[in-house]
Amino acid sequence: MDIRGKITNIKNINNKTRIVVDLEDDYMELITRYSSGISADVELRVDDGRCLTIQQRGKVFSIIKDIALYTGDAPEYLRGILTFNYCVETNIPLFSLSDCSVTIARGFISFLIDFVLMHNIPMTDLGINSTDDIDKYLYSCLKFRRCCITGLAGADIHHVTGSRVGMGHDRLKIDHSNLEIIALNREWHNKVHNEGETNVFEAYKIYGIKGDNILLDKLGLNYDDIS
Asked: What is the DSSP annotation of the chain?
């Protein structure tokens, strides 16, 4: 259910943000039907009002071209199908790449890179250069076990400095919920162990991230301390 409105008040209360939203229509009955009239989980998308950039449009067309070369489908056909699928997945109206917002374009680029990583589709440029949201890219590389530098499949899970698993500990049993990890192929994994992370991470603008329970489950990593 996608409901539109405008933020009319916003304030910080005890380090949490309280927002008042005026909806564009009367949704009282509809909302209470799903929320039992007391509380409900919601997702807030804020439209920043800016139109997508030339760079974002270029990234979209480049990734779709790579997918078309791999599948043999026409790029225009794929763009329509993938745009429709993204709108269904995110519950937003159909949009045009001629005038959609920066936020929508950023999400669509991440969606396309997810598709490429999931299906092991070769890319003309490195995924790290094609992404518009580095956090989501690093998450997807972990999810699909693809090296975040080279894009190669079968990546290792590297525990970054400060989150290393010490000798005598079983990495499958320790609690990973607060550990930062990153997906690297064996060559780059060995390189950062032997030469340190600083130069490599700074050169490619990458870093370790904490995985949520869904990601850790997929990777077979524990998020409760049972060591």
From this structure: ----EEEEEEEEETTEEEEEEEESS--HHHHHHHHTTT-----------PBPPHHHHHHHHHHHHHHHHHH---HHHHHHHHHHHHHHHHT-----TTT-BHHHHHHHHHHHHHHHHHTT---SS-HHHH-S-HHHHHHHHHHTTB-TTT--BS-EEEEPTTSPPPTT--TTTS--TT-EEEEE-HHHHHHHHHH-SHHHHHHHT---EE--HHHHHHHT--SS---
